[in-house]
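Hi Y.,

Following your request, here is the sequence exactly as I used it, all 218 residues.
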Amino acid sequence: MKAVPWITFVAALVAIAAGIGLVPAAWVFVAKPAATIGIIVWAWPRGRAEARLRRLVLLGLVLSLAGDVALLWPQQGFLPGLIAFLLAHLAYIAAFCQPQRLAAKPLPFVAYALVAGVILALLWPGVPGALRLPVVAYVLCLASMAAQAAGVWLVARDTAAAARWRLAAIGGALFVVSDALLATNKFASPLPLASLWILASYWVAQWCIATSLPAGDA
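Below is the corresponding structure, written out as tokens. Let me know if you'd prefer a different format.
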């Protein structure tokens, strides 16, 4: 297990390098799934004392892997990838509802609703008509996931679980950043070194969510 973070890091670097043209583009077909598989392997032994939470986080990671594979084909795979990630966020929302009911802390939901509204307003003109409904549904799920993670952390700040839920909240926030960058690159204007910013923030987000599961049997 000690080698897993390094293998994951190297796979992520190769995928990013392929995306920005430093290595052959075809390498991304191996490296991108490998990086997410590495995070799944990292999460697998964690959180066994919280079985339902663990199952839901692992389900979110596996659905994210399906989304990663679909998005290897950016045009044909965009909608299947969007659906896979939407389901992943639903799994994460269910996971983050284990310690606390949905929207028990309303302030993060208000904040993320504002963020989601701004992002949608800025990108809306470039979103094709056929994708508008799926994109809205996805953004709602993404924002709710990040808000629920932040709400759990706010409640847990003065407890022994504060550090792990802070990681979940950071993961949720970085997921919003990553997807906002991806959507801007796709629907507004191409970003310089897009793969670097999108994939780096994405895998750090997933790593934070995976690591929010308590280590071992704790």
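Residues 129-156 form the longest helix (28 residues).

Thanks again,
Q.
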